[in-house]
Amino acid sequence: MGSGIGGHGLTPRQIIDKFKTLKMVDVILPTTDGRTITLPRHIEPREDTALLLAQLDLTLPAQPPPKVSPSLSLRMHTVV
What we know:
The protein is α+β, with helices and mostly antiparallel strands. Helices cover about 30% and strands about 20% of the residues.
């Protein structure tokens, strides 16, 4: 087996560098009625990062649900 964490041949720094490639993005979609739908998403990991996740028995969480914001006109008239 290789040296490194868990016999994977990677140093802790290399593992961190691979995990740094995991990204979260917000896909923002305006609707025709003035609302906004925000889809927070993590991108699919690269093949080498997916392999590392599997070897470490880690899984990414499920994609978060979409967020729907009220229309701008409703937000302006809301009393707090």
